[in-house]
Amino acid sequence: MNRTPRRRLFLFMDIEGLMKRAIKLALRAKGKTSPNPLVGAVIYKRGKIVGEGYHKAAGKPHAEIEALKNAGKRAKGGILFVNLEPCIHYGKTPPCAPEIVKAGIKEVYIGMIDPNPKVNGKGIRYLLNHGVKVHTGILEEKAREINRFYAFAVKNKIPYVILKIASTLDGFIGGFSRRYITCEESRRLVHRWRNQVDGVLVGIGTVLKDNPELNVRLVKPVKQPLKIVLDTNLRIPHSSKLFSTEGDVIVYSRRSGKLPSGEVVTVGTKKGMLKIEDVLKNLYSRGVNSLLVEGGRNVFSTFIKEGFFQEIKIFYAPILQGNGIKMIENVSMVVQVERSRKIGDDILVEGRNVHRNN
């Protein structure tokens, strides 16, 4: 198995350019494929692309199969570019590696090895054993970035967690009459994030105070995320908007009970709080690979204290409140700030948990 340098040209074949095309194809299905990864594939032969495709949704044909179908007989003797290692196991669809061999592909360039234990190098070994040349690590950093939800979840058996906080400049997230802290552009961006994750989570305090819908409204929805509430004593009102708007609902509580729609799942407690790890494990078992946590303070504090987050995104609105509910309480965190940018009137600061991101 050869590891190809980051930039290398074979005659007129732009290796990175062709992998970029595969990644661009993969991103066409952003938000649609979970719990499967985002995958795009390109078949190159005699100086041109003869076939391409991407995985459109879970249960649909994989990217390699779409590309082979698109290429037809022209695939024979071609070179395949794919951002994730081809699979070798049966799931909802047959494995891809045997079809690649069967089509006569002579060489494969791969962005990253699939961390799924059912694959994890087995697809590469199958190709090599059948005479196909294999190169890995092509634009690997970008390949990992677009599938960070999938890779983290399949390795750790819990969802990839993003904390989203809307705050005043002096660090308050509530306790005042203002309906929205952030501007419309920021709220629209949050709806785009909801469109890309599997679930949106809040605590019961947020439900009681704000009566949120937690669905996608401000952008065209690809799908509606699972709406998740942490409610230790099952206090959620049956009149909540969560039950009358689009999207399935699941409430985690130490008590059992019935809801107008959705499901109550009982979990254990620790010091009077629901066990977050048990909640996350249960969500993963339901196919939730990614989770956007939107409040409130106790929820943020618990996720941070226990280290169950991979990214944090804080919107700072140009408001000085002076008092109210602080964003977190009695916890500290080490975050690598990656960038800050202006969103409308607000400033968005984005960072990653340096201790738990693999």
Automatic annotation (TrEMBL):
Q: Name one GO biological process term.
A: riboflavin biosynthetic process
Q: In which pathway does it act?
A: Cofactor biosynthesis; riboflavin biosynthesis; 5-amino-6-(D-ribitylamino)uracil from GTP: step 3/4; Cofactor biosynthesis; riboflavin biosynthesis; 5-amino-6-(D-ribitylamino)uracil from GTP: step 2/4
Q: Which UniProt keywords apply?
A: Hydrolase, Metal-binding, Multifunctional enzyme, NADP, Oxidoreductase, Riboflavin biosynthesis, Zinc
Matching PANTHER family, A to Z?
2,5-DIAMINO-6-RIBOSYLAMINO-4(3H)-PYRIMIDINONE 5'-PHOSPHATE REDUCTASE (PTHR38011:SF7), DIHYDROFOLATE REDUCTASE FAMILY PROTEIN (AFU_ORTHOLOGUE AFUA_8G06820) (PTHR38011)
Q: Which InterPro entries match?
A: APOBEC/CMP_deaminase_Zn-bd, CMP_dCMP_dom, Cytidine_deaminase-like, DHFR-like_dom_sf, Eubact_RibD, RibD_C, RibDG_C, Riboflavin_Biosynth_HTPR
Give binding positions for NADP(+).
166, 210, 232
Q: What does this protein do?
A: Converts 2,5-diamino-6-(ribosylamino)-4(3h)-pyrimidinone 5'-phosphate into 5-amino-6-(ribosylamino)-2,4(1h,3h)-pyrimidinedione 5'-phosphate.
Q: Which family does it belong to?
A: In the N-terminal section; belongs to the cytidine and deoxycytidylate deaminase family.
Under which name does UniProt file this protein?
Riboflavin biosynthesis protein RibD
Q: Which positions are annotated as binding substrate? A: 194, 206, 214, 217, 294
Gene3D superfamilies this protein is in?
Cytidine Deaminase, domain 2 (3.40.140.10), Dihydrofolate Reductase, subunit A (3.40.430.10)
Q: Which reaction does it catalyse?
A: 2,5-diamino-6-hydroxy-4-(5-phosphoribosylamino)-pyrimidine + H2O + H(+) = 5-amino-6-(5-phospho-D-ribosylamino)uracil + NH4(+); 5-amino-6-(5-phospho-D-ribitylamino)uracil + NADP(+) = 5-amino-6-(5-phospho-D-ribosylamino)uracil + NADPH + H(+)
Which SUPFAM superfamilies does the record match to this protein?
Cytidine deaminase-like, Dihydrofolate reductase-like
Where does the record place the CMP/dCMP-type deaminase domain? Answer: 13-135
Which EC numbers does the record give? 3.5.4.26, 1.1.1.193
NCBIfam families linked: eubact_ribD (TIGR00326), ribD_Cterm (TIGR00227)
Q: Name one GO molecular function term.
A: NADP binding
Name the cofactor(s) required for activity, per the record. Answer: Zn(2+)
Catalytic residues identified in the record: 64 (proton donor)
- Organism whose genome encodes this protein: candidate division WOR-3 bacterium
